[in-house]
Specification:
By secondary structure, the chain is mainly alpha-helical. The protein is 60% helix and 5% strand. It has 5 helices and 2 strands; from the N terminus they run H-H-H-H-H-E-E. Strands 1-2 form a two-stranded antiparallel sheet. The longest helix has 75 residues, at 2-76. The chain is elongated and about 125 Å long. The chain starts with a helix and ends in an 11-residue tail after the last strand.
């Protein structure tokens, strides 16, 4: 009888162990499935964000290239660059705002009585690309191509970013204003400055 009871207890413990192992296996399988799904979603999200970043970087590079071209054209046309807007800093608030109004009126009276200093003469501006191109042509005894003018100006003004395309645009602008002549020799185009041409204005 005792052996029978012991066998039953052993069998019950075995059944409980089997159920625990089965539950553990099922739980592990669920976790594995969830982790695998999370990894797939994570990789897909990384791919999506990487594609968006690459697209934004390409757009930024294109905008920077367009900005450089527009600045060169602006310099070629002699258009002064517009100053970038500067946000005014807010006035600090504190004990100064609590001063009596009489003190404010006194300071205002002193300011009105003080004469504004005479503005000093503006600093000389650098010559525009139009003037540089025309002056260079005027100093030559033979016709010059846009590439030759660009090479000479790059040597004379290494601090400036001078491009052949911008110089060619500038030369064509001088031709349109009768401040330069254009002559074609084969597939090449050469430019000269006429003797009676009006001087280019500083813009």
């Amino acid at each position: 009888m005792d052996r029978l009871l012991a066998s039953r207890d052993t069998w019950k413990r075995f059944e409980n162990m089997s159920e625990t192992i089965a539950e553990t296996t099922e739980l592990t399988s669920q976790y594995a499935t969830q982790v695998t799904g999370d990894l797939e979603r994570n990789l897909k999200e990384q791919d999506r964000l990487s594609a968006e970043i690459e697209a934004l970087q390409a757009q930024l590079a294109a905008l920077r290239h367009d900005h450089t071209v527009l600045v060169n054209i602006q310099q070629a046309l002699g258009i002064p660059a517009a100053p970038e807007p500067v946000a005014a800093a807010p006035a600090p608030r504190g004990k100064q705002d609590e001063k009596p109004a009489t003190a404010t009126r006194k300071r205002a009276g002193v300011k009105r009585a003080t004469k504004a200093p005479v503005a000093s003469s503006a600093a000389p501006t650098a010559p525009t690309l139009v003037n540089l191109v025309r002056d260079h042509l005027a100093a030559q005894t033979e016709p010059r191509s846009a590439a030759e003018v660009t090479t000479a100006l790059e040597q004379q003004h290494p601090e400036r970013n001078i491009k052949t395309t911008v110089v060619r645009t500038t030369l064509e602008g001088l031709v349109a204003r009768n401040q330069a002549h254009r002559a074609k020799q084969g597939s090449s185009v050469f430019y000269t400055v006429p003797q009676n041409a009006e001087p280019a204005t500083q813009e």
